[in-house]
Amino acid sequence: MLSLYLHIPFCKRKCAYCAFYSGPDGDREQYTEALCRAIRQAGAAESRPLSTLFLGGGTPALLGAENLQKLLKTVHTSFSLEKNAEITVELNPESTTPALLQALKEAGINRISMGVQSLKDRELQTLGRLHSSAEALAALQRIFDAGFTNVSVDVMFGLPGQTPAGFEQTLERLLSFPITHLSAYALQLEEGTPLGDAAEAMEEEQEEALWQLLCRKTAAAGMEHYEISNFARPGFESRHNLAYWRRTDYIGLGPAAHSFWKGARYAYPEDLESFCAAPWPLRDSQPIGEAEAREEQIMLGLRTFEGIPLSLLPKGFDPRRYRDFSYLKNEHFILNERGFYLANSIISDILSKE
Ligand code: SF4
Fold first, then answer.
1. In total, how many domains does the chain have?
2. Which of 87, 204, 276, 295 has the smallest CB count inside 10 Å?
3. What is residue 91's predicted lDDT score, i.e. its pLDDT?
4. C-alpha of residue 314 to centroid of ligand 1, in Å
5. What letter does residue 132 receive in the DSSP assignment?
6. Ligand 1 — pocket residues by CB below 6 A?
7. What is the pLDDT of residues 44-94, one digit of tens each?
């Protein structure tokens, strides 16, 4: 199985919490050309068909419909794609126009992931997002009107001043749309970001209450909690993200993009110019040894509803210690919802026994 990720590092303005590599500067045409070169060379180095393709960012829409179509065309001429390949683009509400959606549909995009984050205007302002709640709802409606049926939205919790009632309203309104997938991330206060430097983290108990609310609401809407931060209607799990957690091969192209390819990990530097100057080959090869592979399998597998084979558990670790937070199925150790919340400490405990 092979996946391809294309990073579009442009955003009109930085959100107040964002530490990703993205920004307003850079020549869109020159970047598209560099990315097309990288795609062609990656395609020449691979014979396997793509199972998934993901255009993320940043804000991919800022490349413009024409450049996005050029990228997709280059992918199609450089790789073969599986018949039902999952092809996702990330969108933000303010740039989701009917014309762009039409162009994406014609170019073969079959899954949209939209960054809504909240439907409370005060929270959106705190986050420094460019859209209002009304714009987010209108954009979501436009996506369905354009004929997309596999639609994911991102929300955030643990926001300054966020209340359970407000979060519940955001979730209920979003779940009233026929979305197939929901990603929910707790706000991380990253040092060096305006929000990270100014805000205080929500009390642990309050944040846990929001998490429980999230789990209840998504379950009531028929969604499965298939990864710590991800919920999907059965059959609509993100195949692209599952590839990361299952440790199947993926190639990531663009500044700051990571790859896991043929037994090694790679990462392009966070530098648009150096990527444009030499878009291929992948950089900073780090071969993964047996012990490291095993550690990765534990850390990534326990994030998901697939868990890890019992054979991966170290001898000194007794899974019964976590009987309230896990279950055993088909010779696998799997965290339940309570376990997902404590995943970091359970994983540390397992790794300390290695
Ligand atoms: S839109 Fe996304 S990538 Fe861009 S600044 Fe905001 S959070 Fe960061």
1. 2
2. 204
3. 98
4. 39
5. -
6. 11, 14-15, 18, 20, 22, 57-59, 92, 115
7. 999 999 999 999 999 999 999 999 999 999 999 999 999 999 999 999 999
